[in-house]
Design goal:
eight-stranded mixed beta sheet, Aspartate Aminotransferase, domain 1, binds 4'-deoxy-4'-aminopyridoxal-5'-phosphate, Aspartate Aminotransferase, domain 2, four-stranded mixed beta sheet, alpha/beta, 432 residues
């Protein structure tokens, strides 16, 4: 039984008349879990309120950015003060330099950074730069990792190692897709085999250092180290896509947490505190190739937007302070409590389940585990997740409307929110 949300249902019917599938981003349409999406009215702290007046403890958090929850007073103040001074200038502001300094200060491998408007722009630009810098054609990505919707990145793995890509999406030219090679995540042997065969043709490897787009799947020990080693030996660049993990699995992102030094890093989500922003950056000599310093063109009318910079900078400063007081350990402990509640409830009911928690991310799978790659997560039970998702929604808990997405925690979730969610998880298994 799914709770009725008449105003949201009516709003969705109207939206479908004027937007593809009724949404501005496909995952919002609830296709994987069925039913009709709820429409947001407003948010406050860890809670999201829909237009029917229901309240949800929010673990979607706008797909990750809201590490300070909804409408945090200090972020709202920074953004509104910035807006009152002007929403965009098209000439430099000192705020952009302050933001760049803050990002560079926190992300260990970055010497220089360029702001863009989304994660997609960040990865697309980093790849162009990597190809230009190395003079090589091929990009390597991992099946199940998502890096935005640029043509080169809409390619999934074929079976086996180093399969030439086929477009995952119509509209991607075959020659573009063929320049993207895919490998299974967490498979060091496949990685080494590809580099042994074709290492000198590879411009870059792009990876989610903790995968969050096949559900949350951490790297197995040694995988990220192997990536660093083989790319360096082959003269290929290593791009850490930390759009999701940045400032989320730790203050220094996954690279800080695992002690890996990528050549380029892409950022998004948390960096903008919910405003549209992304960034890419890395080693000074590589970034020197970006226009106007170098020949690799990349630009943006709204890049470095003052509202996004003000909100993001406030958020990052607050994070730096909170991290010193154990924020990331607390988020991970909360995530682990949700993971443990899920696994315990599954075990009690004889339902195969597994779960991961790392920093402010977690993943819940209807699969007995271990979960290491997209092959594993693709075998998780989708129908059970759909029922579980709706049971939680009816209990006032909002998770991602797909098992192949991560869950997120914020600094403003309370012990009480977590306890109520543990209870909701346990009770949801009674309805499966
Ligand atoms: N990279 C990763 C790791 C992501 O999770 C996402 C978005 N979920 C992107 C890139 C694309 O970011 P955006 O949606 O802002 O374009």
């Amino acid at each position: 039984m799914t709770a009725s949300r008449p105003k949201s249902e009516s709003a969705f019917a109207q939206a479908k008349q004027v937007m593809p599938g009724g949404v501005n981003s496909p995952v919002r349409a609830f296709r994987a879990v069925g039913g009709s999406p709820f429409f947001a009215d407003h948010g406050e702290g860890p809670y999201l309120y829909d237009i029917d007046g229901n309240r949800y403890i929010d673990y979607l958090l706008s797909w990750g950015p809201l590490i300070w929850g909804h409408a945090h007073p200090e972020i709202v103040r920074a953004v509104t003060e910035a807006a009152a001074r002007g929403t965009s200038f098209g000439v430099p502001t000192e705020l952009e330099t302050e933001m760049a300094k803050q990002v560079i200060d926190l992300v260990p491998s970055m010497d220089v950074v360029r702001m863009v408007n989304s994660g997609t722009e960040a990865t697309m630009s980093a790849i162009r730069l990597a190809r230009a810098y190395t003079g090589r054609r091929y990009l390597v990505k991992f099946a199940g990792c998502y890096h935005g919707h640029a043509d080169a990145l809409l390619v999934k793995a074929g079976s086996g190692v180093a399969t030439l890509g086929l477009p995952d999406s119509p509209g991607v030219p075959q020659e573009t897709a063929q320049a993207t090679l895919t490998l299974p995540y967490n498979d060091e042997a496949a990685l080494r085999a590809l580099f042994a065969a074709r290492g000198e043709e590879i411009a870059a490897v792009i990876v989610e250092p903790v995968a969050g787009n096949m559900g949350c799947v951490p790297p197995v020990p040694g995988f990220l180290e192997a990536l660093r080693e083989v790319t360096r030996a082959a003269g290929a660049l290593l791009i850490f896509d930390e759009v999701m993990t940045g400032f989320r699995v730790g203050l220094g992102g996954a690279q800080g947490r695992f002690g890996i030094d990528p050549d380029l890093t892409t950022l998004g989500k948390v960096i903008g505190a919910g405003l549209p922003v992304g960034a890419y950056g890395g080693k000074r000599d590589i970034m020197a190739a970006v226009a106007p310093e170098g020949p690799v063109y990349q630009a943006g009318t709204l890049s470095g937007n003052p509202l996004a910079m003000a909100g993001g900078l406030t958020s990052l400063r607050m994070l730096a302070e909170a991290a010193a007081n154990g924020l990331y350990e607390r988020l991970e402990a909360y995530g682990q409590r949700l993971a443990d509640a899920f696994v315990a409830a599954g075990k009690k009911r004889g339902v195969p389940v597994s779960a991961h928690a790392i920093g402010g991310m977690f993943g819940l799978f209807f699969h007995g585990g271990p979960i290491r790659s997209a092959d594993d997560t693709s075998q998780a039970d989708k129908a059970l997740y759909a029922k579980f998702f709706h049971a939680l929604l009816d209990a006032g808990v909002s998770l991602a409307p797909s098992q192949l997405e991560a869950g997120f925690l914020s600094a403003v979730h309370t012990d009480d929110d977590i306890a109520r969610t543990e209870e909701a998880i346990t009770q949801a298994f009674d309805r499966l």
